[in-house]
Specification:
Elements: H1 6-29, H2 33-53, H3 56-100, H4 103-133
Length: 134
């Protein structure tokens, strides 16, 4: 069998080792219901981790989650950069329009300022929505 996730493999092995150590301790000090239940849980989770370490489907799902996370981070960074560029452009156009007293430059500065304001309001609304939802 091929191992697709070393992290899950070592997690499963660690849990099985803990279960074995607890079993040895129980043999020396005596059996208690909580200890027996803990051994059963450790063995079950350990075997589950070993199974998922060798599961190709789990490896595919992990890659899909990673891809979605990277895509989310990239979009977030792109949006932040767009807002920063829009802010710099707004300031530059308004200052240039005021210094040169050229109305089209001032109008473009105001338009980019409105776009920046709209994107900031949308970002705040989305944050509020997702904080309430999740």
């Amino acid at each position: 069998m091929k191992i697709y996730s070393k992290k899950r493999l070592w997690s499963g092995v660690g849990l099985l080792v803990l279960a074995a150590l607890l079993l040895v301790t129980m043999c020396i000090k005596g059996f208690r219901a909580k200890s027996v239940a803990l051994v059963v849980v450790l063995v079950a989770i350990g075997l589950g981790e070993l199974g998922s370490a060798m599961s190709r489907q789990q490896a595919i799902e992990d890659r899909e989650e990673r891809t979605a996370f990277i895509e989310s981070k990239a979009r977030s960074r792109a949006f932040s950069l767009t807002q920063q560029i829009c802010l710099v452009l707004t300031i530059a156009l308004v200052v240039a329009g005021a210094v040169k007293t050229y109305l089209p430059l001032l109008a473009m500065g105001i338009a980019t300022g409105l776009i920046l304001t709209l994107s900031t309001v949308c970002e705040i609304a989305a944050t509020i929505y997702y904080e309430k939802r999740y």
